[in-house]
Write a structure and sequence with these properties.
Layout lengths: L4 H35 L6 H4 L4 H10 L19 H7 L4 H10 L3 H4 L1 H6 L4 H11 L6 E2 L2 E2 H7 L4 H10 L15 H7 L4 H10 L14 H4 L1
Helix pairs in contact: 3-5, 4-5, 9-10, 9-11, 10-12, 11-12
Length: about 220
């Protein structure tokens, strides 16, 4: 303090603070690169899905949970979404899904796909649509919301909500394998009340055959 060094150090603190913040941002950017290197894959490509590194993803979530508290734009979709959406579509392990869910529970309120996949209450799903300016007819990886709901066996209340609000044509929409929402619900062992609802609202689906020439009645 006698030679003035302490005073000089105090004067340098603002500059040091800015430098530390910049370094922190650079570090976060590097970790975001890690996130994209793990998750920015094509869910429609089976070879790509096999590249998902669950262990690396778990390590990243564990040490950098804040990375998963924001939305990102991945190559397979034009809008920003929560990373957990990619984890679901890339068939990540239940451990990965649980960790992501715990890291960013608010994701359901701002990302409709997250709300849908996690079977959020109807009012939360509706809020996410409004917050993100998302139309209920939108798609992700060539699947509309009712197809996604049936593929991932979400709860009855949310499927009923979609059935009541979507045009009936969506109930006979075919996925890449020629499957209707009803077929997907049966294939993925949805609850009986879901299957009954879809069969009642779309009786035509009972007669349709998928690309393997199989009907719903043959797998129910």
């Amino acid at each position: 303090a006698r030679d003035g060094r302490l005073f000089d150090n105090y004067r340098e603190w603002p500059a040091m603070g800015k430098m530390l913040k910049k370094l922190a941002r650079l570090g976060t950017g590097a970790k975001e690169d890690d996130l994209f290197s793990i998750l920015d894959l094509n869910p429609l490509n089976e070879d790509d899905k096999k590249k998902l590194d669950d262990r690396a993803l778990i390590e990243l979530i564990t040490h950098h949970p804040n990375l998963f508290k924001k939305l990102y734009k991945f190559g397979c979709h034009g809008k920003k979404i929560c990373p957990i959406v990619m984890a679901y579509f890339l068939d990540a392990s239940p451990d990965v899904i649980d960790l992501m869910s715990e890291a960013f529970p608010r994701g359901k309120e701002i990302c409709p796909l997250t709300a849908l996949l996690m079977s959020a209450p109807n009012n939360v799903f509706e809020k996410s649509l409004q917050t993100s300016s998302t139309e209920i007819e939108e798609t992700f990886c060539d699947l509309n919301f009712i197809q996604i709901a049936c593929k991932f066996s979400v709860g009855f209340e949310l499927i009923e909500y979609l059935v009541d609000r979507l045009h009936p044509k969506f109930l006979t929409k075919l996925d890449s394998g020629g499957c209707t929402p009803l077929f997907l619900a049966c294939k993925n062992e949805s609850k009986l009340e879901v299957i009954k609802l879809l069969a009642k609202k779309s009786a035509r689906s009972l007669k349709l055959r998928n690309k393997r020439n199989v009907t719903v009645l043959q797998i129910a």
